[in-house]
Amino acid sequence: MLTGDLPEPGIAIPALYDQGPRSPAVAHAALPSLDWWRGFRSRELTQIVENAREANLDIAAAVARVVQADAQSRIAGAPLLPSIDLGGSAVRSRSSRSAGSTGAVNDSFAASLSASYEIDFWGKNRAALRAAEQTAVATRFDSEVVSLSVVAAAANAYFQMLAAQDRLQVARNNLQSANRVLNLIQQRVTAGTASDLDTAQQESLANSQRASIPPLEQIVTQNRNALAVLMGRSPEGLRIRGGSLRAISIPRVTPGLPSELLAQRPDIRVAEANLAAANANVQVARAQMLPSIRLTGDGGYQSAVFRTLLRPESAFYSLAGGLTQPIFDGFALQGNLDQQMARQDELLQNYRQAVISAFADVENALNAIRQSALRERIQREVVSSSQRAFDISEERLRSGTVDLVTVLQTQQTLYQAQDGLAQARLAHVQAIVSLYQALGGGWLPRPQLPVEAANAR
Description:
The protein is about 60% helix and about 10% strand. The chain is of the alpha+beta class. The chain has two domains: about 25-80 and about 120-290 and about 330-445, Outer membrane efflux proteins (OEP); about 85-120 and about 295-325, Outer membrane efflux proteins (OEP) (Single Sheet). It has a four-stranded antiparallel beta sheet with strand order 1-2-3-4, with no helix packed on it. The longest helix is centred in the middle third of the chain and has 68 residues, at about 125-190. The chain is elongated and about 135 Å long. Residues about 1-5 have low confidence and may be disordered.
């Protein structure tokens, strides 16, 4: 076994992630905390996530499914206990006089207690209970999958709204710059040093910046509405201030070891629990082909007169035992066994697929963090050099020592660079969120070893 009672996935488990730290100590240096969203140091994001965890309707539905699964496990465990019924009856009858009888009225009173119990000699009922219990466990982990997805969706929607607000600010600033350059060109036209073509080109650039604003405002509104849905609220009553991605901290997070991921990812635990339930169902299908032994008992009081109902002479009882062995059922039981075994094999493959996919998700997230951080750093340098070039071209435009084509080119380069920086920053924080999601959310703190054990290691 790999960790605890986890089944063997039948695949090679790497010692370390290719895209992660090369030392186990470094890999455990910054494992995700249970409230990992606080690492972005945004009070508004923390409030949004906590409200979503409390009021999200998908999470509420998942909790209801857990309650259903628990109830189903209690139902499945009922055959392990005797079934006891209390009965009572009062009957008055009269025979027909036309049939030659006296037409007398007869009374009959009875009170009885009956019990039945199936001896679980082959473990069929215990296996059915284990299957239901493992299904309930899978439902619990599935609710954790839903909760993690909701938290990640809330964080991503909030970051997308912040990025759109940053891009809106960039577009508005660029529109101001374009209008400022347009005024300079119009002054040169008045002075006879520029043409109407120069004015038209700059007007086109300014209008392009103006046209980019409505789609960004739409993105802000859409993500604000998405957050309202995630928080289980109507969009009309929700107010989110937002801000800028520049105010969001980039938390440091490390992935731990690949073998530890099997115990942390809730979707892996779902697949594991479903596989355990399938194993129990196979045992149930085998036991159904063996003899079934049932004991029944019935006892109580019966009398024609109510006042003598509880006297010793009115007592009765019966005990019986029965054995049932399936002989021929059209191969229904064998078909059920084959079906359960095939289901077991299917869930085993699903478990292996979940493990492989989890490793791939972590590798992709680690690579995305590395590449997006590099992209953001380079894009910041592009913005710096583009801003410097635009400032120089605008200054020379004022002095009349630069052609307008150069000014237009530096403007467009700066606008694209600033917008690209906002998108690069968004990709970086979303890569962090994807790593938290790939790791299964927050991890419990690692147990502290005694000093002597730590020194021995």
